[in-house]
Amino acid sequence: MEKKIPFYEKIAFAVGDGGCNFIWTTIGSFLTLYYTDSVGISAAVIGTIMLLSRIVDGFSDLGMGVIIDRTHTRWGKARPWILWSAVPMGVGLILLFSVPGSLSNSGKVAYAAISYTIMAAVIYTACNLSYNTLLSLETTDPKERVTMSSLRFFCTMGVVLLINYNTMKIVHKFGWSKMAAIYGLIAVVLLLITFFVTKERNSLEKEESKKTKEGSVTHSFKILFKNKYFVLITFIFIINYTALGVNNGIRIYFARDVLGSAALMGTLTLCFILPKMIGNLLYPQISKYLGKWKSLVIGYILEMLGVGIMMIMPVSLQGTVAGLILLGVGGIPHTAGLFAMVVDIIDYGEWKTGERMDGLTYSATSFGMKVGAGLGAAIVGWGLAWGNYNGALKVQTAETVSAIKMLFTVVPFVLFAAGLIIIMFANIDKIYPQISKDLAERKR
Which residues are CB-contacts of 164 (< 8 A; sequence separation ≥ 6)? Predict the structure, then answer.
């Protein structure tokens, strides 16, 4: 029987995602606002930059997955990449929120495009994909993985709340660059804690490791795409993170321009995040009774109900609060449960093909997250441009407000409906007991 992971190590694993979110939540929630209102770049241009960068980024994830699978150090496969990328993550955040005012308009666009692409497609990819892969390398116990995922997302949601409540206060007091420096430093510290305290245990045998290392990249991808659950889960990640990207990017505009106060940003985020925080701690029990797949299906239904309430009551704070709470409850299995399911998919790939590819399979999560976040940011930018958003106006026009409402409600509803359809074909729970049994027998 596999030794249990010490609780302090589970916490050390969890804070790593807090570090990642001090970077990416800040980017996802506030970079568009910084570019439109402080730098003066048009919303349409921002949307295009972010989409193109994240598509490049998504494919770089697949390359990084190959690199992780071929990494062999005394620290393991994934942990060294967390170490090597931690400081660049902090520096990259500062550079993103420090567009030189002396540049021309085209110079500012070029600076934004280059810095965003390097940060998203290189630095964040190396850090976040290696962090995601670490879960499958720390333990083979499905219950431990669910618990670690739950703790991870509890920590993540706490960081998201902190960022959404405090960022604008810090910006008003110190400016965008110093805000980024504060968050960047915290992120580096949290990522280093993950590196130094966690341990990779689920290593391949030497013969299997050698085979993975010497096998061609083309062969690895052929094996990967024989895993039907990999393809389906990739689409799920794209859909979920597109919806999350839209919600994160448009929430500040919705609070300020629809509900009438930017100060409501924190409250709206609390309604959305608090149910997830509590639910992630309870998710191991939820998963025990419902399973991962069934809980994901129910989650989509609840998310659609939540968005539906906000569609019916788009200018009501009470309706928005109720809708966001339902959205948060529905999102519980789409955090801890979805990431834990990816590890099941890695096991399925090994069971089906005889070859285990942790990093490359986990690139499904990172690819989906990056492409989804890019699509979400692009939709926000294009939607604001379509609504003739003007960052110089203190009060937006009725046309702009209408576009913001649509982005906040209609777009996520359509995305969740698409996700519900796809998840119906991805029930790995029904065959996983056999997968687990067969893999255990092979390793005896």
Answer: 25, 29, 251, 265, 266, 269, 270, 273
Does residue 7 belong to any structural domain of this protein?
no
- Condensed to tens digits (0 to 9), the pLDDT of residues 157-213 reads 889 889 988 998 999 999 999 999 999 999 999 999 999 999 988 654 433 444 444
Instruction: Tell me the residue range of the domain where 337 lies.
Output: 14-437
- 2 within some domain: no
Position with higher pLDDT, 142 vs 415 = 415
Q: Is residue 18 part of a domain?
A: yes
Q: How many domains, in total, are found in the chain?
A: 1
pTM of the model: 0.72
pLDDT, one tens digit per residue, over 327-366 is 999 998 887 788 778 888 888 888 888 887 777 777 766 6
- The answer on pLDDT for 308 being more than 90 is yes
Residue 3 domain flag: no
Looking up residue 375, the CATH number of its domain turns out to be 1.20.1250.20
